[in-house]
Amino acid sequence: MLAAVSANAYAQNLQGEWTDGTIVFYAKTDNNGAEYTFDGFLGDDQSFYIKRTAQNQYVVSRENESMMGWSVGKKGCKVEYLTLTEQSGGKAEVIACYDAQKQLCYAVQKYSGEYGDYFKNTMQTMFASMLGTQYEAFVDEYGSPKILPLKSKADNKIYLLKTDANGITLYNSEFKDMAHQPTTVFKTIKYFDNGKGWWHQTSNKVLCVAYLELFDAQQLRLMRNEIYARHGWKFQSDDLQKHFSQFSWYKPFGNNSAVKLSALEQFNVNLIKAMETKAEKRNGQRFAPSTSLTFKDVAGIYDNDDDGDRISLLDDGTATWVMVGSLNYTEYVYTIQGNDIYLKESANDKGSRHVYDAQKHTLTDSDGKVYVKND
């Protein structure tokens, strides 16, 4: 918890625009701050609610588990309002939600102005050391939590950024490819040490979900522990100790109890850990196909022309449902049984059934909605 920098949220005016970097919320209250509704811009399935208790604290007041795979905590779980000072001197206002184990599980940040500018400036700051100012991030209307679309200032072309263990890769792409796995490499840029590590901004700027969604669990683990490493933490894990020993700035102390993180760093550590847990869970839900149909056979983008919904099946056993023209998406894993494809949000989930037609290259859900493969 960040009690040293948190303020009782009841004393704050929380009304205004908030975001996790992907979903935009408008917070409003009709009863003098006793309860706030954070309305997601696409409706109730993206909204969450907090209320003031008799102890003048805020807690989650209603259940909502469908926010793109996120939970803001169970009913009654604690919510904190935080003001964190960034290196620029600016004050970042954050609402942090905790789960039943008192671990950070979700967070949104207040912003002003245009959301697109907030998103662009945030990503520009985080990738500045690798990309400079040649590329501009923008909001991806086709939606993917693992791919960042960029526009080149030099040629006005669109490129897709993906991260891996070695750095970042930019792929050539057309707009229609954004929700799918890009394949044509434009350039690769390896992580490099600028004297403060690979992700030095994690000690200077409040992180957001949209940025952290770009990394896998192993990268997030390194990112989280790099914050500790900058303060001289001595690691018990051999792989971490070996990794950080390659940096000349890393000077481990003998006493880890002497290591003190700033309030901003502690918040970022907690948010990275929440994202790390989510990524580990997602990776642990990969399934092998059980029939002659393989993931590669069915991989592709399937569109429903009536309402603009899109299902993107990747050849690694993961899937994304997207509402085209918005930022609304849901992540899944999928299994194949005969000609049936089941989209699952968890390993124990029965999944939603979609019948695959190999001749027509279509998916048909249980309501009869047909998604046609986009070739």
What does this structure look like?
By secondary structure, this protein is α+β, with helices and mostly antiparallel strands. It has 4 domains: 105 residues, no CATH class; 76 residues, no CATH class; 84 residues, Methane Monooxygenase Hydroxylase, Chain G, domain 1 (Up-down Bundle); 79 residues, Lipocalin (Beta Barrel), CATH 2.40.128. Helices cover 18% and strands 33% of the residues. It has 6 helices and 22 strands. The strands form 3 sheets. An 8-stranded antiparallel barrel has the order 2-3-4-5-6-7-8-9. A hairpin with a 5-residue loop joins strand 11 and strand 12. Helix 3 packs antiparallel against helix 5. The chain is globular and about 65 Å long. The chain starts with 5 loop residues before the first strand and ends with a strand. The N terminus is likely disordered.
Characteristic key phrases:
4 domains, alpha+beta, eight-stranded antiparallel β-barrel, Methane Monooxygenase Hydroxylase, Chain G, domain 1, 375 residues, disordered N terminus, 22 strands
Secondary structure blueprint with pairings:
Blueprint: E1 6-7, E2 16-19, E3 24-28, E4 35-40, E5 43-52, E6 58-60, E7 78-85, E8 91-98, E9 104-110, H1 115-131, E10 135-137, E11 148-152, E12 158-163, E13 167-172, E14 185-190, H2 209-212, H3 217-229, H4 238-245, H5 263-283, H6 295-298, E15 300-303, E16 309-313, E17 318-323, E18 329-337, E19 340-344, E20 352-357, E21 362-365, E22 370-373
Antiparallel strand pairs: 1-7, 2-3, 2-9, 3-4, 4-5, 5-6, 6-7, 7-8, 8-9, 10-11, 11-12, 12-13, 13-14, 15-16, 15-22, 16-17, 17-18, 18-19, 19-20, 20-21, 21-22
Helix pairs in contact: 3-5
